[in-house]
Amino acid sequence: MRNRATMKLPIKHLRALFAALLAFATFSGGALLADQSAAILLYHRFGEDDYPSTNVRLEQLDAQIKELKEGGYNFLPLGEIVRRLKANEALPERTVAITVDDAYKSVADNAWPRLKRAGIPMTLFVSTEPVDSPSSNYMDWDDVRRLHSEGVEIAHHTATHLHMIEAGLEAAMADVRTASARFEAELGFVPTLFAYPYGEYNIELKTAIEKEGFTAAFAQVSGAAAAWGDPYSLPRFPVNERYGEMDRFKLIAGTMALPVSDVVPLEPVLADDRNPPLFGFTVDDSVRGLSALACYPSHLGKPAELLTLEGNRIEVRFKEPFPKGRNRINCTLPAGQGRWYWLGQFFYVPGGVLD
Questions:
Q1: For the domain bounded by 15-257, which CATH number is listed?
Q2: What is the number of helices (H) and of strands (E) in the chain?
Q3: CATH pick for 262-349 out of 2.60.40, 2.40.50, 3.40.50, 3.10.50
Q4: Angle of CA points 145, 147, 150, to nearest 5°
Q5: Over the stretch 4-23, which tens digit does the pLDDT of each residue have?
Q6: Residue 70 and residue 56: Cα distance in Å, rounded?
Q7: Which end of the chain, N or C, is less surrounded by CB atoms within 10 Å?
Q8: 318 vs 201, 295, 343, CA distance in Å?
Q9: pLDDT tens, position by position, 179-228
Q10: Residues of the chain with CATH 3.20.20.370
Q11: For residues 203 and 265, is the Cβ–Cβ distance under 8 A?
């Protein structure tokens, strides 16, 4: 029997009810959670085989594009993904974004022509000083303008690609503003998407980047970007020769963000008395099978100890402190149908060797 009360609702109320039910289903039902997250992939060089840690071989790139086109993925420009995440709007299932840092010449010569033919959007995070300096390794401004005219989304990556934490807030933001002035002079606009060089950030930097007018900022820690995440420390999966083989590529491209809240600590920079950190988060009740969750600190060859508390609260514990420099914790959980939930967290210990 039909519900007469529902039948009498005005059409605008029916639409609101449907939207509410859809939102509930999206957050509470299995694979539909993918509609609230996106896998953002991070590249640097293409076909520059002398730099395997930041390069993908061209045969790897061709295979990855083939998988993206034939594997049931959906593509959106990064700015549109950010807009939807911040508005808590649904994304197509298996949404993937391609991002590239540093404006190497091989991006224009090798990557963009392939992506353009495949109809896959690309976002290019540009550090302006290398583009200003004549070099066969980097694009020049004519290259950047051409790619922009062909549909590439241009984004901000500072002027000198400095280590922002070690440089200090004043020097870091001066470098950001120097780059902004160059973007305005060469392109006629200042990009609103920002990527931290080396993925390094702290609370102070995130706050300053937001106040500067950027709509979102991106790190380099693995994980899917989600509506419940911090828009000023969004994760991206690095892709290089080692981490670009097809098994791993399929794994990360199909990843779903683990739905969590109350993540601690908020500050990723660790003083001596907070290293190792007391890392914890609460997993949404919709997620099942938490006994299969595993969290891997980057400096250990084994999973950390997990304490499961009341209300799906997870506390990650390990005794060995992180070494100086960039560190991370990756937490993964099978999500069914060959897909995985993933939560990545960045940590930084001051005084490391800068590269």
A1: 3.20.20.370
A2: 12, 19
A3: 2.60.40
A4: 110
A5: 333 333 333 333 333 333 33
A6: 20
A7: N
A8: 23, 10, 17
A9: 999 999 999 999 999 999 999 999 999 999 999 999 999 999 999 999 99
A10: 15-257
A11: no
